[in-house]
Design brief:
alpha/beta; five-stranded parallel beta sheet; Aspartate Aminotransferase, domain 2; 117 residues; 5 strands; globular
């Protein structure tokens, strides 16, 4: 949670919008809904198995697409390359929490901020 909190506090600003997977790790979801919303950051959640739905939820103020390499707790898989394409097309950052996976997710190749433990 330290890495997730540090990243959220350093990247998210008042008025920003974040599109995140709906089946998000509980600690991240609480951070977003109970703390970051108090700083004026807005969140929209998309079903984790529907990377194409990210496109429909993007707004001009969307700064971050927040994803997990497999969601927690339901282990849904999102096509990270599609999420990266959607984010980069709108000049947003892609963040991938990769805590659950210990395999390469090609983070550098698809230009995303990648967290793993």
């Amino acid at each position: 949670m330290g890495a997730i909190t540090s990243l959220a506090l350093s990247l998210m600003r008042q008025g920003d919008h974040v599109v995140a997977v709906q089946d998000l790790y509980g600690g991240s979801r609480r951070l977003f809904d109970r703390i970051m919303r108090n700083f004026g950051v807005n969140f929209t959640y998309v079903p984790g198995s529907s990377a194409g739905a990210f496109e429909n939820l993007m707004r001009p103020e969307t700064k971050i697409v927040w994803n997990e390499s497999s969601t927690d707790p339901l282990l849904q898989i999102v096509d990270i390359a599609i999420a990266a394409e959607v984010a980069h097309k709108r000049s947003a950052l892609l963040v991938v929490d990769n805590t659950r996976e210990h395999i390469s997710s090609r983070a550098i190749e698809i230009r995303c901020i990648h967290s793993g433990s």
